[in-house]
Amino acid sequence: xxxxxxxxxxxxxxxxxxxxxxxxxxxxxxxxxxxxxxxxxxxxxxxxxxxxxxxxxxxxxxxxxxxxxxxxxxxxxxxxxxxxxxxxxxxxxxxxxxxxxxxxxxxxxxxxxxxxxxxxxxxxxxxxxxxxxxxxxxxxxxxxxxxxxxxxxxxxxxxxxxxxxxxxxxxxxxxxxxxxxxxxxxxxxxxxxxxxxxxxxxxxxxxxxxxxxxxxxxxxxxxxxxxxxxxxxxxxxxxxxxxxxxxxxxxxxxxxxxxx
Length: 260
Hints:
The chain is α/β, with parallel strands linked by helices.
């Protein structure tokens, strides 16, 4: 790849460590837009939303390569229009896995700061993607003997879930199931699973920790009405582990470049 420099743009603390890691690998790295030229590789802080898109569009030129996280549709369209090669680095699997582990560790740290006694209550984890798996593993590694059930829609996940020692709950067929036994819920699903009707199936002393993207998967207003603990914890890697998360972004980008 023919690049003159790498310009890492955005105030997110992770970007400092992304830039530092890229520089340590021998690249000419800048943290200022004024160094962007037509042979620059541009790295944008996540999320590359509308605000970031407006900021960077004046600096885009044919021939550049752009890496960004959670790219807006407008930014994607602009890149395609200008024949700019782009990658949403948050979709690179190795980075997704690393972020999932950092998210799980950070979420448990948040939970413990609220005086949660995870070894004294039954846990449910909604979703079994990268984050659901990471949360399950961190919990089971740190709290031997903890009781964990996984709530999913896909029946084909049952053998894998049970093989790991977790209980399986089918979200499509749970009539008559006792949900009041759960003390802690960790939601990773970015869809409104925990609506009013579903929340009413749980005990009022349940505690819900949501790390799902966008608006999450919980009716927070209804939880507030019922005085149920329910909090959303977005962007944990960048908030708690900026060094590790920044270096992971850099390595994911480098590995992706080496495949081209």
